[in-house]
Amino acid sequence: MKTGRTTRPTSRHRFRRLCRFAVLLLAAAAALVGQAGVASAHATLESSIPADGATVDDAPSEVRLVFSAAPLSVLSVTVTAPDGSIMSTGDPVQDGAEVFQALGPFTATGDYGLHYSVISEDSHAVGASLRFTFTGTPAAVPATSAGNEPEEGSDDGRGVGGVVLGAGIVLAVLVFGVLRLRRRD
Ligand SMILES: [Cu+2]
To answer: CATH no. for residue 125?
Structure first.
């Protein structure tokens, strides 16, 4: 009878343990399903300004991308000019499901490429290349190449000046040292 009394409570205990385990499993499963529902927010591009394939007459100062859900992070938004050079400036700015990218001057008519890359809430990488055509009056090309050359020249001059100054200091120290040694003798 003593053994019966001791075995009964342990079997009950085991049953309770199993019940608790089953409840925990169900709760974990429910939590996983709930998470899957939240995490399935896959961001897709809903619209853009300029739109893909659009013809633009007025040069926009920025590009606007509208996603179906706020991206987790924006990796890059770049706009390329007809010659292939990148004409977007600075980093993209995110405002919820919208992403803005500042643009430089439109210095040529023709096809512009718009490339974006974002990480969606469900951790998926989302990206694509769009295209629009600029038919307006091109802005004057900024005089960057002409302005850079004299600066580079002056930089070289500074470099040579530094070397001459350094050599002069080394020479002065050597002469000073030799003179001191001679005085001691
Ligand atoms: Cu996704």
So the answer is: 2.60.40.1220
**Could you tell me the residue range of the domain that residue 85 belongs to?**
45-134
Same domain, 1 and 81: no
Strand-pairing partners, residue 94, are 99
For the stretch 113-140, pLDDT in tens is 999 999 999 999 999 999 999 999 999 9
- Residue 127 pairs in a beta bridge with 117
Do 11 and 89 lie in one domain? The reply is: no
Contacts of 141 (CB under 8 A, 6+ apart): 107
Beta strands in the chain (DSSP E): 45-49, 55-56, 62-67, 73-80, 93-95, 98-102, 110-119, 125-134
Q: What is the pLDDT of residues 35-85, one digit of tens each?
A: 554 556 899 999 999 999 999 999 999 999 999 999 999 999 999 999 999
Amino acid (1-letter code) at residue 162 = G
Interval between CA 71 and ligand 1 midpoint (Å): 10
Tell me which residue of 90, 84, 144 sits closest to 108, measured CA to CA. Answer: 84
Nearest residue to 139 via CA among 104, 102, 105:
105
C-alpha 120 – ligand 1 centre gap (Å) = 6
Token output for 179 = 């003179």
**d(CA 33, ligand 1 centre) in Å:** 16
Q: Radius of gyration of the chain from Cα atoms?
A: 35
How many other C-beta atoms lie within 10 A of the C-beta of residue 61? 11
